[in-house]
Structure formats: C-alpha cells, structure tokens
Design brief:
Elements lengths: L1 H16 E3 L6 E3 L29 H16 L6 E3 L8 E2 L9 E5 L8 E6 L2 H4 L9 E3 L7 E9 L2 E8 L4 E7 L3 E3 L1
Parallel strand pairs: 3-11, 6-7
Antiparallel strand pairs: 1-2, 3-4, 5-6, 5-10, 8-9, 9-10
C-alpha cells in the first residue's frame, strides 16, 4: 500500500521537473547538469585543430572582381581606345563616356600576367590614388598632359605602344588588342 502512494507522488515530482518547450517540442530539465571532475589524473591537453582556411579577399581583389564583372556584363557595349593611322598619326586616344564601361591595363610584356604598368578605367575606385600601384598611373581617359601613347605594332593579341612622358622618356606598353580600334 505504501508503494501505491509513492508512485503517484514520484510521478508528480518528475512531471513538475520536466516541462515542454512549445516552440521546439523538446523536453528540458529545470535542474542543471552537474559534472564532477576526476582530480586524480591530470586533465588532458586540448587538441588544437588547424584553423579552417577562409578565403581572404583584399580590397584590391574586391575591386578587381566587381569592376571586371561590370565590364563583362556590358558585353560589346564598352568604350575602346582608338588609333587614327591616317596621315602617319599613331596616337592612341580614349575618351571616357559615363554610360559605357571600360577597364584595361597596359602591361610590361604581351602577357596579362606580366607587370601592370598603366590602367584606364571608368571606375573611380580603380583610378583614385592608383590603388593597383601602376608605374605609369591610373586614368579615366587618354587626355593626359604628362603622357602620350603612340601605337607601334600589333603582336598576336596585343598592341605594342610607347608611352612618352614630358621629359621624352619612353616606356613600352602592351594592351590587349580587344581594347583598341583602328581607324
């Protein structure tokens, strides 16, 4: 008979200690879990897992990715530099149009992985303060008092040009041919 009294009381106590969370339908105990540490052995040293490699995107990588994507999305509706070959004038010209994208580098060799010497871009974050550190600078267009670009020849998919500064010093620069039109 005593056992019959203890069972309902025990059931009542257990049900009071367990409640149901209406949001998750999971049971939680109101009593905290108590962990007793075994102090007879020294605690094991924690195993350090190598940090997962997260892709680090620098500011320049971000600019490069964003602005290249914009130019690619423009397709053929971009501003190109042009060369008038009539009458022996070989000056390379580029006028920026705010409604059309352009973004192209001049390289030290006919290879897009070679050193970037100069940049022409419609994007302010490409030009302002020359963030890519191009030796000859970064510009919106080729209307520079300090530098003149002259067409020399075509070499494969590249146009060879001479960049001549105010002191008449020249630097050979290669542009991808797709960015230059000839008239």
């Amino acid at each position: 008979m005593k056992n019959n009294i203890y069972i309902p009381i025990l059931t009542l106590l257990l049900s009071a200690c367990i409640h149901k969370d209406s949001n998750t339908n999971q049971k939680h105990r109101d009593t905290p879990n108590i962990v007793v540490a075994d102090t007879s052995k020294p605690a094991p040293k924690p195993v350090l897992k190598p940090a997962s490699k997260k892709e680090f995107t620098s500011r320049l990588d971000s600019i490069e990715k964003t602005n290249n994507a914009s130019v690619i999305a423009s397709g053929d509706d971009v501003t190109k530099a042009y060369v008038y070959l009539h009458g022996g004038d070989s000056t390379i010209n580029l006028t920026a149009y705010m409604r059309k994208d352009h973004r192209f580098f001049g390289y030290a060799a006919p290879d897009v992985t070679s050193e970037r010497l100069i940049l022409f871009s419609i994007f302010t974050d490409d030009v302002q303060n020359n963030p890519f550190g191009c030796k000859l600078g970064a510009y919106y267009e080729i209307r520079m008092d300090s530098l003149t670009l002259k067409y020399v020849s075509t070499k494969g998919n590249f146009v060879k040009a001479k960049a001549v500064d105010k002191t008449n010093q020249s630097t050979t620069v290669y542009f991808e041919k797709k960015w230059i039109d000839f008239e």
